[in-house]
Amino acid sequence: MDYFKSISNQLLTKLGAQKEQIEGIQQAIKDSGFDGSKNVSFAAVRQKLKERDLSDQEIEMLFSKYDLDQNRELDEQELRAMFADLEGKKNEIEKEMAENENKRPESSRSVHRYGGGGGPDMSKLTKRVDRMEYTLSVISSKIDSVLGGKVLLAAKPDDVKTRLDEEDLDN
Question: 2-170 has which fold?
Fold first, then answer.
């Protein structure tokens, strides 16, 4: 059961990171000068995405996917297509996270999700806290599994000594 719980937590952590990366890409493009009516150059987008720790290869792949006329500049139509695609991916991730959240036991769900308003800052903070909970849960389960193995070894020292002696005789 702990195995499935840890796998679920790892999946949710990865999904949260992907969603955050998509939001970062969207914000970087907005920061690079896109206001809905003008073109954005590759250099401006690249600089903003580099600040968000994307590799050159990831930036090049993203840009080439949407730069249909290959002029190293994203025009309004290309940017709208990019934003629509990114928003669709973000919605898919949110849906998958919600499905996985509903599968989790009530005791491990975040209480913050059911609270009142608080604005976008509270929402962002809540998401980060939830991701930290997932990560800590994964770490905790790994520690439990490691300590569980050591407890078994400590519980039966004669068996361990016998096995070690047999291994020495085999070599």
Answer: Recoverin; domain 1 (1.10.238)
